[in-house]
What we know:
The protein is mostly helical. Among the domains are: about 10-105; about 335-424, Tetratricopeptide repeat domain (Serine Threonine Protein Phosphatase 5, Tetratricopeptide repeat, Alpha Horseshoe). It has helices at about 10-30, 35-55, 60-80, 85-100, 115-120, 130-140, 145-150, 155-170, 185-205, 215-230, 235-250, 275-290, 295-310, 315-330, 335-350, 350-360, 365, 370-380, 385-400, 405-424. Helix 15 runs antiparallel to helix 16. It is elongated, with a radius of gyration of 25 Å. Residues about 1-10 and about 95-110 have low confidence and may be disordered. Belongs to the sigma-70 factor family. ECF subfamily. Keywords: Sigma factor, Transcription, Transcription regulation. It comes from Planomonospora alba. This is RNA polymerase sigma factor.
Amino acid sequence: MPDRRGTGAGGAVEAVFREEYGRLLASLVSRFRDLDLAEEVASEAIEAALAHWPVEGVPDRPGAWLLTTARRRAVDRLRRDQAYAARLALMQVEAERAGPGPPPEAGGALPDERLQLFFTCAHLALAADDRVALTLRCLAGLTTPEVARAFLVPQATMAQRIVRAKKKIRQARIPFRVPGADELPGRLPGVLQVLYSVFTEGYAASSGADLQRPDLAEEAVRLARILHRLLPAEREVAGLLALMLLVHARRAARTGPDGSLVLLEDQDRSRWDREMIGEGLALVPAALRGGPPGPYGVQAAIAALHDEAADVGSTDWPQIVALYDVLLALAPSPVVALNRAVAVAMRDGPAAGLALLDGLAGEPLLRGHHPYPAARADLLCRLGRFPEAAAAYREAIGLAGTEPERAHLRRRLHAAERSGSDVR
């Protein structure tokens, strides 16, 4: 993969690459049925652009230029490789049967087979981490080192994941196609889960020095926008995009100037991205109409209530609790129950919320989930039970993955310890 950094024409290549790479790779995979070959010739096309565009200028239709260049490189390579001779002949026969079509330079839209690639990269036969890695590599256009940095793993480890995923696609003969109407309901949730996993890691990093990774969250939003354009009638696609937009709109207010964590109740809401909120709010009705809502649509509705409120006090907590009741029925999990308990505490008071949290104490999933002891600690503080709160804060500090989260919890711990001393 060529280095795409730079200014001038190099910067133009970077912008085109981000916009066009997923479409380019999907078109090549659809044509040649070989992900490795498609990646190699796509990289060669980018290298050719870096050589030609600074001299000749960026073409009017850069995506078509890249596709034509990559296709020619692929055909030349196949002709030189006897192992691919039969495949090339078959492709030529198929092309003749399909009839002549205008070359990409001649006009018309660049073919868009990205939807096929979405379902291939997110196939349930692949391991969960491999699905995420392959989606970022093939559809977001991130290089292997960039994907490795995004998930804080060595480059060699990420390269192995991507190679493993490609090998699985070949060995299992996972098809490069969009599922049929009867298959789509079973396959689409896997695609959405991959995008949501990417976004979650960007919105709230699992480890490291920073609370957020905005570039990763923005890639997830960009991919969700593409998926929504490709599947505009799918309500859960609209719901996921709405959820991402409504949450990502708060990114600037989630950290202080020093990178410290700022809780929702303390955020300067004038720093929220109102244009992004408007885009998200416009999608929520489409996600909820036309049948029973899906989990992403319900979560988007919850996020919308937060974004529409002037402050925490004026938030419609009864409606949020009601939506969590719906979500708990649709997608029961201890994390959803935890979030519902916090909302109940805002509606009915800390004692009511704490009783619900204590009822979740035996859930294995919450034992390593730092928001659980952190939520208990906050409610214990509101009830004046400071020694218990301090113990819960210490537990949360030990589980938190990022330094901003740990620093925030340490500040809360010190406040609880001071309050406890004052009481004594």
